[in-house]
């Protein structure tokens, strides 16, 4: 087990085994880019224990999100509101949409990418986009359970179309 007195070498060994071991490292090593990068490669959620400066490092945060989309929760607010960064993040893991800014949860291109990768991301889209037929159908293509997050009007429209197609097949 490492502690605040552990050397960089000891911490690197520990985080390669369990990224969350970063929480026991010294403040200095939680701000060391190499150490944090190794930690988030093993467990994206280790970003929680990184220094604020590292939580604003695009490359480290993207690596964390690639490992676990929920890591975007521990990214800086600046990155959570950076359109190009969030677009890249949801391409890696659609669940990252949950921690994007409200403005970006209403960005059609970002939401389409998110639901393409993870239909459940529809739950984190704006109400407006939960009422967007194309967005909902893209989410349903990934998982039928995304239907739960669609607006009532889109649900009704889709069910009516399905019933109509079933009747046409008779």
How would you characterize the overall build of this protein?
The chain folds into 2 domains: 1-69, no CATH class; 81-170, no CATH class. It is mainly alpha-helical and 170 residues long. The longest helix has 18 residues, at 152-169. The protein is built from 10 helices and no strands. Helix 6 (83-92) runs parallel beside helix 7. The model has no long low-confidence stretch (mean pLDDT 95).
Task: Write the topology of this structure.
Elements: H1 8-17, H2 27-30, H3 33-42, H4 58-67, H5 77-80, H6 83-92, H7 108-117, H8 127-130, H9 133-142, H10 152-169
Helix pairs in contact: 1-3, 3-4, 4-6, 6-7, 7-9
Offer a concise description of the structure.
This protein is mostly helical and 170 residues long. The chain has helices spanning 8-17, 27-30, 33-42, 58-67, 77-80, 83-92, 108-117, 127-130, 133-142, 152-169.
Count of helix runs: 10
Calculate the mean pLDDT score and round it: 95
Overall morphology: elongated
H/E series: HHHHHHHHHH
What is the percent of helical residues?
40-55%
Number of distinct beta strands? 0
Poorly predicted regions: none
Radius of gyration: 20 Å
* Distance between the first and last residues' Cα: 67 Å
Main beta sheet: none
């Amino acid at each position: 087990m490492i502690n605040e007195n552990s050397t960089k070498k000891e911490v690197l060994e520990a985080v390669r085994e369990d990224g969350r071991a970063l929480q026991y490292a010294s403040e200095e090593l939680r701000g060391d880019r190499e150490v944090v990068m190794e930690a988030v490669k093993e467990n994206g959620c280790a970003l929680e224990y990184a220094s604020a400066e590292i939580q604003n490092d695009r490359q480290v945060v993207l690596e964390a999100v690639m490992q676990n989309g929920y890591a975007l929760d521990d990214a800086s607010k600046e990155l959570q509101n950076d359109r190009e960064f969030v677009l890249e993040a949801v391409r890696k893991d659609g669940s990252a949409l949950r921690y994007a800014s409200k403005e970006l949860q209403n960005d059609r291109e970002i939401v389409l990418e998110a639901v393409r990768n993870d239909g459940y991301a529809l739950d984190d889209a704006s109400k407006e986009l939960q009422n967007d037929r194309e967005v909902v159908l893209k989410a349903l293509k990934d998982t039928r359970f995304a239907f739960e997050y669609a607006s009532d009007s889109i649900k009704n429209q889709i069910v009516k179309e399905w019933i109509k197609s079933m009747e046409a097949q008779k």
